[in-house]
């Protein structure tokens, strides 16, 4: 039944089976370490023939803040690589041992190391975009709403051209209060929870346009949590927000834009290209 964890597990299996058979983009991969921990690294995807990163997509993978790795999400990078964009997919330390504060530190360190590796501070022409799916979309949203965190890349905030989020936990009070959520964000009254909750950062202002995809039958990330964020955003922010709601859609439906020929692929990529190149 849609809207249940059991259904989402079956969807995950079908999703990985589909993307594993997709044609691969032409690119090379470089592993970049940004700490001593085994999970403090990212994969930099460089389009074939490209030598200078003029446009970059910083994409955070999902996995419930517990699972996943960048290599599992390379298909999410293909549409951008095919456009000639560089893509960086970092990973991060996980619950239950680590919480949002540690993951935020990993995001900051990854940006600093990316700057050092690519000498981004000295580039004249550069633009970037933040993206993420599921747990990674929560981290992506928090990054996009925190100018101090974004400054770790060594570039002006104005160069952030957009933020796209798929199946994102954006109002944690609307999420099911599971042990995983408590490991990640602590109690609702804690400073940790406030820092981990993107909707609470809207009071300081958004710094880019947004494109959000969410299914109404998501069994992992409650639909209403996204609605709360979207409504608050539109009430308080001057930035554009495009909200694509998938009627009867599951958690995995929010990331099926990676499929060749999927209508959401064209919609998202048209928006990305407009923001990055327009």
Give a structural overview.
By secondary structure, the protein is of the alpha/beta class. It has a single domain, classed as Rossmann fold. Helix content is 36%, strand content 18%. The chain has nine helices and eight strands. The protein has an eight-stranded mixed β-sheet, with helices on both faces. β1 (27-33) and β2 (41-47) form a beta hairpin.
Taking the alpha carbons of the first and last residues, their distance comes to 42 Å
What would you say the CATH architecture is?
3-Layer(aba) Sandwich
Count of DSSP H/I helices: 9
Instruction: Look at the structure and give the mean pLDDT.
Output: 95
Approximate shape:
globular
Structural class: alpha/beta
Q: In angstroms, what is the radius of gyration?
A: 17 Å
Under CATH, the topology can be stated as: Rossmann fold
SSE sequence, one letter per element:
HEEEHEHEHHEHHEHEH
% residues in beta strands: 15-25%
The CATH superfamily is identified as Alpha/Beta hydrolase fold, catalytic domain
* Spatial sequence of strands, sheet with the most strands: 1-2-4-3-5-6-7-8
- The number of domains is 1
Percent range of helical residues: 25-40%
Main beta-sheet annotation: 8 strands, mixed
Q: Give the total of beta strands.
A: 8
Return residue spans where pLDDT drops below 50 for at least 5 consecutive residues. none
């Amino acid at each position: 039944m849609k809207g249940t964890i059991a259904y989402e597990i079956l969807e995950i299996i079908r999703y990985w089976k589909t993307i594993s058979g997709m044609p691969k983009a032409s690119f090379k991969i470089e592993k970049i370490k940004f700490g001593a921990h085994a999970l403090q690294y990212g994969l930099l995807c460089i389009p074939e023939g490209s030598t200078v990163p003029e446009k970059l997509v910083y994409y955070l993978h999902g996995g419930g803040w517990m699972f996943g790795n960048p290599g599992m999400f390379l298909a999410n990078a293909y549409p951008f690589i095919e456009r000639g964009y560089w893509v960086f997919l970092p990973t991060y330390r996980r619950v239950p041992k680590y919480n949002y504060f540690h993951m935020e530190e990993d995001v900051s360190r990854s940006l600093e190391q990316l700057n050092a590796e690519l000498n981004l501070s000295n580039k004249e022409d550069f633009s970037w975009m933040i993206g993420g799916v599921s747990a990674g979309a929560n981290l992506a949203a928090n990054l996009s709403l925190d100018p101090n965190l974004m400054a770790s890349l060594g570039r002006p905030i104005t160069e952030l051209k957009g933020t796209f989020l798929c199946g994102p936990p954006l109002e944690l009070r609307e999420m099911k209060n599971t042990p995983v959520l408590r490991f990640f964000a602590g109690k609702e009254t804690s400073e940790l929870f406030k820092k981990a909750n993107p909707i609470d950062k809207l009071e300081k202002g958004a710094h880019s346009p947004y494109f959000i995809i969410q299914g109404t039958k998501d069994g992992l990330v409650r639909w209403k949590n996204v609605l709360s964020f979207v409504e608050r955003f539109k009430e308080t922010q001057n930035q554009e927000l495009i909200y694509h709601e998938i009627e009867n859609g599951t958690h995995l439906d929010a990331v099926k834009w990676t499929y060749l020929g999927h209508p959401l692929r064209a919609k998202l990529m048209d928006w990305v290209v407009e923001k990055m190149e327009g």
